[in-house]
Amino acid sequence: MIEIAPHISLDERELMFEFIRASGPGGQNVNKVETAAQLRFDARNSPSLPHFVRAKLETLAGRRVTNDGVIVITAQRFRTQEMNRKDAIDRLVELIRAAAHRPKIRRPTKPTKASKTRRLDSKARHGALKRERNARGDE
């Protein structure tokens, strides 16, 4: 089980891995060893995720999600299969955590009576100062 949030955990059996040849550095091994990991996770049909997380996850995944709701993450940063596999899982976990995060609901507030009074007093003082300057300039 992969722990994502206090109320969300993924079963590793839901993750499907395929190893492919990676591009980039690797010397002579780059053309003969399949080190890049391609992770597939069926987000739309996952029993581990609550409904609101599934919906938000598909929008956050963007172009990494297929028409069937499968998220595909390709990891090829490292030179070993195991490191790339771990990297792909970490990236999926971060994506699900972002989808599970609910933003705090903003409740509109009104200014207090004291803050309104302070604001109006400040405006009155500023206006009086300007009137005083103008009166001196006329003489």
Can you give a write-up of this model?
This protein is of the alpha+beta class and 139 residues long. It has helices spanning 51-61, 81-100, 113-138; strands at 2-5, 8-10, 15-20, 36-42, 70-75. It has a three-stranded antiparallel beta sheet. A two-stranded antiparallel sheet has the order 1-2. 16% of the residues are buried.
CATH architecture call of the largest domain: 2-Layer Sandwich
Q: Please give the count of helices.
A: 3
Pairing-aware structural class of the strands and helices? alpha+beta
Report the strand count: 5
Shape: elongated
Secondary structure: helix percent = 40-55%
Count up the domains. 2
| Oligomeric state of shown chains | single chain
Strand order of the largest sheet: 3-4-5
**Mean pLDDT rating:** 82
Order of helices and strands: EEEEHEHH
The major sheet is characterized as:
3 strands, antiparallel
Question: How would you summarize this macromolecular structure in one to three sentences?
Answer:
Helices cover 41% and strands 19% of the residues. By secondary structure, it is an alpha+beta fold.
Fill in the keyword field for this structure:
139 residues, alpha+beta, Double Stranded RNA Binding Domain, 3-stranded antiparallel β-sheet, two-stranded antiparallel sheet, 3 helices
